[in-house]
Each structure stands twice: as structure tokens, then as C-alpha cells.
Amino acid sequence: MAVHGNQTSEITIDTAFLTHVDLGLNSSPKFLSSRYFYDEIGDKLFVKIMNLPEYYLTRAEHEILREQPNAIISALGLDKDTYFELIELGAGDGTKTKELLKPLVAQDFKFDYLPIDISQHALDDLEENLKKEIPNLSVKTQQGDYFGVLESFKNSEHPKVVLFLGSNLGNMEDDEAASFMEQLSENLSANDKLFLGLDCIKPSAVVLPAYNDAQGVTAAFNLNLLNRINKEFGAEFDIWNFKHAPEYDEQSGIAKSFLVSKKTQKVWIAALDQHISFEEGEKIHTEISRKYDTEILKAILSETAMVIQSKFTDGKNYFADYLLIKG
Ligand code: AVI
After folding, report:
1. Which residue intervals define the domain Histidine-specific methyltransferase SAM-dependent in the entry (predicted)?
2. Is the CB of 253 under 6 A from ligand 1?
3. Quick check: CB of 287 below 6 Å from ligand 1?
4. Which pLDDT tens digit goes with each residue over 87-120?
């Protein structure tokens, strides 16, 4: 939808996001999805998060890929004479993936690397970087949403290895994760593989600081959602009137992030032509970061044709990359 603010400027409104804000802030309890964290500022804050001392996830998974590439390659059971497609869901900056790509190229495997991302900009940066670092790698970027692109490969007769790293599955509620895995499985053929990175259940003393760092970067990441609503929908959130509040339940392995209203207040959202009321201490649930163990993963996979073949962990057992095979 295009809204003409005046004769010279045109603002495009993300209607799906606006509908979500309307639904989430008019619900009780209030919620907003972490899917909307990732605007230009959110992307930059997430890169900072990945380098924070408290955010162990990226380093732990990088260690697995850096220390065990040959064990992973041999578990993939690839035949050197058979071409395969190496598909990555969510391109990122490729830092971790390069640990696999380099030995695959050096060992003369026949494959194309097909990173899928919604952002063409992210894909262009990745492609340029890979050209410099691994000149013999064949990269075919795929812009679009995961399932749209996977659907287009569905009938390819080539074996596929799909990478879904970074515990991104953890940002889904369990029912959503289960239907995501069902859909993924339906787009694969028998013997195709999925290499799935998941953060493991562990004590609160390790998990909570990762979502509540001393420098306040994660707080800024969470609060940026309100800034986004201000910019895109003419809202008047004063972010100083909200605070970032993460919680973690060791028993279930579920971390949740909230924005908590510091006082009773009403906030105007112009694009909704509405005031939203907050009580003092009222929470907006903004993110789930589920931690896994093998039993939980098995439950998520129960309606799919995917089975766990092997598991790779870092030295501290903080993170696990599971190799799944479609039966
Ligand atoms: C992208 N995702 C796996 C991150 C996580 O750990 O849930 C997003 C994040 N949220 C706060 N810090 C990092």
C-alpha cells in the first residue's frame, strides 16, 4: 500500500507488519514478533550481538564447523562423482559456512552453493566475499523466502544438503517449528540431508547473560522494534518508558524476551489511528529463543520423514549441529 504523505514523498507501508502490530498490541497479553527485529538497524545490532562476549551461540557453532569439517563431510556421505546442491537457509555473512565450503572445494566435491535469503543485498555481499575467498566455488544466490525457493528445487533430481544454522529454529514456537520442519521435509527427496544448528538446554547462568549483555546491545535490539513502529507507522513510543526484560526457564529450555512498560501510559500509533494503553509493569512478549535437546528435537520431527543421523557438539556442549536425513 502506498500512502502519499504530501506531493513529493511517498512512504510504503508494510501492511503485514501493521496488521501484526494491531493484533499484537491489542491482545492480552501483548506480543510482537521477533521477525520484525531485522530492519537495517536491527541487522547491524544482530551482527554486534554475535560478537558479544556473553553471546556464546555463534562462537560455539563456529567451533564445531572449524574443528570438525572432515567428520561432518564424511557423515554427509557424499559421493565425489555425484553433483549435489548445497542449499543454505538464511545466508548470513558466511563466516561459519566457509569452514565447510573450503574443504569441500579443496577435496574436489562437485556442487553448487545455493544460499537463500530474503535480502538481495545480503546475498550480493556474500557472493562478493566468497568470490575473493574461495574463487573456485560456484555460488548461485537465490533471493526469496525459504519455501518459495525450495519448492522451485523440489523436482531437481540432484541430491541436496540443506544448512539451517544459528539456532534460527529456536525463534519459533514448538508448533510453528514442527510445521516448518514438515514443510521442509516435504520439499526434500529421500536421502537428502539437513544440517541443523540448535542451541542446547543449559543453566540459566549461561543463557540469560547471552540475552541481557552488559553493554545493552540486546536491549537496543529489542527496543528497536518500538523505534521501527515509530518510524514506519507514525507512532509515539518513548523507548525510555520501556525496558528490555529477558527470562529463561531452565526446565523447559525456553528463553523469552519482553519489553516492559515502566509506567502507566497511552501511546499513539498514527497508522492505526489508535492509542494503545499500557499498565505499569505490563509486558510485550517479543521473542522466543528455544533451547533444544535430542528428545525435544525428536518431538518436533515426529510428523516428518526426517530422522536424526548424527550430532556434532562444541567442547563445552553448548551448541549442537544435528545431521538429519530424509527417510
Ligand atoms: C537469530 N536468533 C537465533 C537469535 C537468538 O539467539 O534467538 C536472535 C537474538 N535475539 C537476541 N539475541 C539474539
Report:
1. 20-324
2. no
3. yes
4. 999 978 899 999 999 999 999 999 999 999 988 9
